[in-house]
Write a structure and sequence with these properties.
The protein is of the alpha/beta class. The chain is built from 13 helices and eleven strands.
Length: 339
């Protein structure tokens, strides 16, 4: 029997396909028309279709023993209705397809469901945001977090009402090969050679390598039990790197000597305030709270605990951060030479 993956050409989905194929699993990927080549190169059978199309789900999920739903909309420039369509309605179809096939559904969610800066503030930087942490209010324009929370509510209700077997994984900031958001920015800044350092730089960043998320997905596919379960997946293999060490690892992989420019937290907050005001001036409807969340991200130790994933899923992240960064930079260099 096969495993179906959505978002197979994206960051998490592509790593999941690689991990499944590495252990000999047949993999099918529901992909947008034109993206089939990317998943074929990873070893998956492409099924062209839209994740919001019930007929595409019927064709793709046939005979699947598990469905990994990693497809999601992230861009803050899209309207709320589009977020609902991609992040909520498509998840409803994933749940229906899993039920029809008797398959386990592994849904890739996010720690954003806890609340952006609220979770960090309540956690107090002491690493105590567990899966039982009370969800905090979300900004009305934080469309990604709102729809991720709605999607989780949906699959939890489906599991309670219809006996659906669902495991939800909640990563934090994900980096790695094929990342189009966080990783390219870090590489660009590091290549410049001068990197701003907010505060003392001793905080352990809330980042996780996509290959380690994929390992959690495989553990979720194999785990016994049923019903609805949620797990934080928020760490690389030890040792954890602090902000200074994280940037230095990128510099080492790139062959760049990194010079750090200390920036006080007050100055960072002021700069974010100016940037936020500029964004609101350009587009009053756009959510600009991500800047404040970014400052909190740099100044606060990773508060998200993943002890439950270790205990119940047997998850052990296979990659340490230095190795993961080296793999990531090597991939980006290969892509640059090929372009």
């Amino acid at each position: 029997m096969t495993v179906l993956v959505t978002g197979g050409s994206g960051l998490v989905g592509s790593h999941v396909i690689e991990a499944l194929r590495a252990r000999g699993e047949p993999v099918r990927a529901l992909v947008r028309p034109g993206a089939g080549g990317a998943v074929t190169r990873l070893g998956a059978e492409p099924v062209a279709g839209d994740a919001t199309d019930p007929e595409a789900w019927r064709r793709a999920a046939q005979g699947a023993r598990a469905i990994i739903h990693a497809a999601a909309l992230v861009s803050p420039r899209d309207p709320y209705e589009r977020f609902v369509t991609v992040n909520v309605d498509a998840t409803r179809l994933a749940a229906r397809a899993a039920r029809a096939e008797g398959a386990r559904l592994v849904h890739i969610s996010s720690v954003a469901v806890y609340g952006r800066t609220a979770a960090v503030a309540v956690g107090g930087g002491r690493g105590r945001v567990t899966e039982t942490f009370a969800f905090q209010p979300l900004h009305e324009r934080d469309f990604y977090a709102r729809t991720k929370r709605l999607a989780e509510d949906l699959v939890q209700e489906e599991a309670a009402r219809e006996g659906l077997n669902v495991i939800v994984l909640r990563p934090n900031v994900i980096y790695g090969e094929r990342d189009r958001l966080f990783t390219p920015k870090v590489i660009r800044v590091t290549r410049f050679g001068i990197v701003p350092l907010v505060g003392p730089g001793a905080t352990h960043l809330a980042c996780v390598y996509a290959g380690n998320v994929a390992a959690a997905v495989l553990a979720a596919v194999d785990a016994p039990g049923g019903g609805f379960r949620a797990y934080n997946v928020t760490e690389d293999a030890p040792p954890a790197l602090d902000q200074r060490e994280f940037i230095s690892a990128f510099g080492d992989a790139l062959g760049v000597r990194v010079r750090r420019v200390p920036i006080s937290p007050a100055l960072a907050r002021a700069g974010v305030g100016v940037w936020t005001a500029w964004l609101r001036l350009r587009d009053p409807s756009r959510y600009a709270g991500l800047g404040r969340a970014a400052v909190s991200f740099l100044m606060t130790d990773n508060p998200y605990v993943c002890d439950r994933a270790r205990a119940e899923l047997g998850w052990r992240p296979p990659f340490g951060t230095r190795e993961a960064i080296a793999r990531t930079v090597a991939w980006y260099r290969t892509q640059a030479r090929a372009s």
